[in-house]
Amino acid sequence: MRVAVTGIGMVTAVGRDAASSWAAIRAGRSGVRDITRFDTTGMKARVAACVDYPEDASGTPLVAPERLRRMGEAAIAEALAQAGLSGPFPGPLCFGLPPVEIEWPQRLALGAPDHAGMIAAGAGIASHYQDFLLGGVATWLAERFETQGVPQAVTTACASGASAIQLAIEAIRRGEADCAIAGGAEASLQPEAFIRFGLLQALSGRNEPPEAVSRPFTKSRDGFVMGDGAGALVLESEAHARARGATILGYILGVGEAADTFHRTRSSPDGHAIVAAMERALADAGLTPRDVGYINAHGTSTPENDKMETLAAKLVFGAEAAPPISSTKSMIGHTLSAAGAIEAGVCLLALRDQFLPPTINQDDPDPEIGMDTVPVGRPHGFRAALSNSFGFGGQNVCVVVGAA
């Protein structure tokens, strides 16, 4: 059974919908800029690919769950409108989301010095429970669009959006649903999470100029740039989509996953799990490596990730036969839980337009990469693309998409 895509929605630092985001990505325009929603004085990293709202300029930035709700709602609404559907939606919601917790402003407002004191002071404050409940954003989105069944809130780190797509297509393939909404949203760009990623030495410390900080596949890459964002896809069995006369935008042909238990944050140096995830996705799609004409890389701009990913790609596709690979994170940052959904959408749009999105900032390419990293976007004829998502904790998911 082929799973068709009939709607794409997107919110990124370069656009509040799929059309404007894709236009900016095609043009190689960066959305990375100085962070203004909180004070970055004393922090090594001070830039990000932000999706700001009016409240962020008022001195009381949105809490992460509210930002997730707004971006997720916008992406899903756009995807449904393109698919010609509306609520109640006759299928499940599968959505990648970050873990949420009460943030510093709310903790400090409780006026308690320790955990026990905060619990006592927070008793009866319903908004804290409602805002920061694990899975609460998925529940809210499911109620907003009247989806069927229990909403699936997926948290597999940077692979969450791709994991959500996998859950959705498996439900359709098993005949449990004719259609599903799959996607992800990310809003971890708040002081505590930002500092944590900095302590992990995962973030770039370049800062100047902001648009040149995210630089995958270069010799000078030194860490990723965090990004806000959301992506959503309306997925349907091909038979269901054709029966209702829907326009098919492309297909999710296959998904592969593989665990890497090497380290909490690092990939195994031999790339075996990344290779396995790619190979399983191709096998699930019924394709050979020669059938894939483009790879949308996980491409975080960290020294180790880019090296391991391209090594794995050359092992799967052959060093001389590997297709072009590019990282749209060079423009929209690393959207973590949303990345897999946004980047699958980018692959579908690239297939539609027969155009390769660029990896910008390629002024000092790393000779060890040894692949075509698409420094400038260009036309390209291809029928299938691979979208890679590799998460902390060794959670690796690859999605193969095909042209309509």
UniProtKB/TrEMBL annotation:
Record-level Gene Ontology MF annotations: 3-oxoacyl-[acyl-carrier-protein] synthase activity
EC number of the protein: 2.3.1.179
PROSITE patterns in the record: KS3_1, KS3_2
InterPro entries: Beta-ketoacyl_synthase, Ketoacyl_synth_AS, Ketoacyl_synth_C, Ketoacyl_synth_N, PKS_Beta-ketoAc_synthase_dom, Thiolase-like
Pfam family, one: Ketoacyl-synt_C
UniProt key word Magnesium: no
Alphabetized SUPFAM superfamilies for the sequence: Thiolase-like
Every Ketosynthase family 3 (KS3) domain range: 1-403
UniProt keyword annotations, A-Z: Acyltransferase, Transferase
GO CC entries: cytosol
A single BP term in Gene Ontology: fatty acid biosynthetic process
Pathway entry: Lipid metabolism; fatty acid biosynthesis
Protein family according to the UniProt entry: Belongs to the thiolase-like superfamily. Beta-ketoacyl-ACP synthases family.
Protein name: 3-oxoacyl-[acyl-carrier-protein] synthase II
